[in-house]
Amino acid sequence: MPAGPGAEADAGREPLDAVLADVVRQTRASVGLVYVLPPGETVLRLVLVYGVTRQIAAPWARVPLAAKIPVSDAIREDRLVWLGSQEETARLFPRLGIVLPYDFMLAAEPFSGGGPVQGGIVLLWPAWHPPQLGADERAALTAGCRRAGRLLRHTADSGGPLPVAEEPRVLSPAQVSPSDPAQAMAALAFAERLPLGCCALDPEGRITFLNPAAADLLGHGAAELLGRRPWEALAWLHDPVFEDRYREAVVTSSPTGFTTLRSPGNRLEFRLYPDEHGISVHITAVTAPQSPSHPHPGPDPDQDQDPHSKPPPVSGEPVGATALYHLTHLAVALAEAVGVKDVAELVADQLVPAFGPQGLALLTMEEGRLRVVAHRGYSAEFVHRFDGTPLTAHAPHLRALTTGAPVFYATYADFQSDYPSAPRYADRSAYAFLPLTAAGNMVGSLVLSYDRPRAFNPAERALLTSLAGLIAQALDRARLYDAKHDLAHTLQTALLPQVLPSVPGLEVAARYLPAAHGMDIGGDFYDLIHPTPTTAVAAIGDVQGHNLKAATLMGQIRTAVHAHATAGTPPDAVLARTNRLLADLDPGLFTSCLIARIDLTRQCAHLATAGHPPPLLRHPDGRAETLTVPPGLLLGIDPDADYPTTVVALPPGAVLVLYTDGLVETPGADIGQSTNALARHLARAESQDLDVLADSIIGYAQHTANRTDDIALLLIRPQPASAAHPAPRR
C-alpha cells in the first residue's frame, strides 16, 4: 500500500512500513531492511524486512553496533556505506560475503536528524544495477532515513513504545506495489493451459501453484506438493545446492537455475525467475547429456526410484543450505567474540532466529554449579530457578554433562517419562540438551526447546552437535580471555592514581578509557603532583604497546616522574632523568611524555614534551588553541637528549587539556586535522563544569572515530583566588 502525504500521522498503520515501502518503490530495490538502536543499548535490532524471509535475514536480526557489518559502520560512522560488487563485499565485509556469496549491490544509511533513537535502512539491488548509486536513489534513501529518524524521535519524545519485537515484521509486496486480482486470475488460467511445466514459490520457498505439465514432470500431483518446499517434498531434490539456488534468487532478485536427475535417464532443468511476489519456476525435461552451462548437477542415484513413491518422512526442518550458511555465520561471529558475555549474547541472539527453537538457555560450569549466562524465549523467573544448580542434582540439563552425549526428546511425553517432576514452560513439546565440551573438558550445557514435537533427524542432530562444539570452543577461549582481562584490569587499576591530590586554587578532572580491543590494558598514564603550596606538576604519557610489559614499564616511568617532580625538579630535567633511567632499563619500548609545571602565583605553566601530542588551551573567553611546544625525542631513544621548556600563560578560568594520542589518532586520518577538530569541539562546549567537559571530550572521541588505542585525559583549570576549592575529581 503506497504511502500518502499523511502516512506518518496515520495511527491505523505502522509508520515505518510506509517509510520502507516508499524507499523500496522509489529506488527499485529488491530487498529492504530497517534497523533500530534503542536508547542505551549497543545491539541493533532488525524491525522490518522486505524482499527476503525472516529465516534468510535471521543472522542479522541482532547486530552489535561495534560489529564489522555495513549497517553498523553506517550508524557508527554516520555515513552512507555503498557496496558496488560481490568482490567489494567480500573484501570489506567478509562475514557478509561468506553467508551471502551472491552478486548484489548494497547501500546502508543511518537515520538523520539526531534524537535518542538511532538506526538505519539497508537496501539491496540485483546485479543489473549500475556500479554506483544514482542521485535519485540516494535522495530517496536519505529522505527515508530522515523521515524514519523523525518518526522514532517523535515516538520516543511522546513516551510511546518503539517498534522493536522478538522477530522483525515482514512487509508484504502488496504494501509496495498492489496487484490486480483480476489480472492475477487471468495469469493463473494462462499458466494452467500451457504445455510447459510451471510452478510458483512464495518468498518462503513454498509451492503456491503447480500446473498439470509441471505435476507430470515432477511425478506428484498438486495436492501432494502445494504448501511444501520442493527440496523437502521431493526426495531427489534433497541437496543443499538446490535450496541455495532458491536462496540466491531471493537475495539477488536475479534468474538462476540448476539441472538434476529425477531418476536414471530422466533429467530435469529448473529455471527460477524471482520478483517481489515470489518466484516463478520453469521446468523442462532435458534429453541430451548435461551441458557445461549447467554446473550444478544433482547426485546420480545408484538404482531406479519410483517417481510416485512418497519421500521419506522429514523430522522437523531438514538441514539445507540456509542452515549451513547460518552455521558458517555463527562460526565466524564466534571467532570474533572475546569475553564470556560476548559469546553468550551472540549465541542467544543468533541461534534462536536462525535454527528454529522457541527457547534457549546457555549454562556454564562455575565452582561446582551451573550458571545461566544467557537465555531467550523464557521468562527470567522461570530461568532463575535453574541458576546455581549443583552438578550432583538430577536434572535434564545435567544429564548431557555427566554422559558427555547430547539428549533429544521428540515429544513432551518422552521428556516427562524421564523427568516427571521437571517444570514445563508454556507449551514446549520437544527438547535438545547438548553438552558443551572443549578439548575434553566440560564447559557447560546448551538447552533448546520447541513448541511442537520434533523427531530430530540424524542430519539435524549432527548440525546441533556441531553448534554445541563451536559454542564450547568459543566459551573456553572467552573464559581464558576474561581471566587475563581481570588480571590486566587489576594491574591497570593499581598503576593509575586512585585519587588526585587536592591543590588549593586548582580544579582537575581526569579520565582513562581503555582501547576497544585486546586485553584493555596499555601504557597510558597520568599523574598530578603537589610539590609546593603554590605549584603543581601534571604528567601524562604513553608507553607503546597493549600488554603486561607496557603496563609494567608505565608503572616504573610514572614512579620516576613522580619522584623527580616531588623533589622540585624542573620539567626538562624530569624528562631528561627519566629518559636516562629508561635507557638503563633498555626495555625495547619507547615512551612519549609531557610535563606541565603550573605556577599558581605567576599564573603560567612550564611545558616540556618527549614526543607527546601537543596540549590544548581553552581561554577564559572560550577560544581554544593547540599549543606549540618544542618537540623532544621519545624517551628511550637517546640517553643524552634535551627537552626544551616553553612557558604559557594560564590565568584563572583557562583550561589546560593534556591527553594521549588515542584521543585524536585514527588509522588513515591526519592527526593534525583531528587535533584541530578537537580544539573546535572544546571551544563549542557550553558547560563550565570540568567533569562535564571531560565527559564531552571522551564522548566526542568515541562518536567521531573507530578508536584503536587507549585514552588518558587530564583537564586542569586555575581558579580565582576568591573561589572555593572543591576536592579534585578523578
Question: How is this structure best described in words?
Answer:
The structure is a single chain. The protein is of the alpha+beta class and 730 residues long. Helices cover 35% and strands 25% of the residues. The chain has 22 helices and 28 strands. Strands 1, 2, 3, 4, 5, 6 and 7 form a 7-stranded mixed sheet that branches. Strands 15-14-13-18-17-16 form a 6-stranded antiparallel sheet, sandwiched between helices. Helix 1 runs antiparallel to helix 6 and helix 14 runs antiparallel to helix 18 (458-495). The chain is elongated, with a radius of gyration of 32 Å. It starts with 14 loop residues before the first helix and ends in a 12-residue tail after the last strand. Residues 1-13, 290-318 and 724-730 have low confidence and may be disordered.
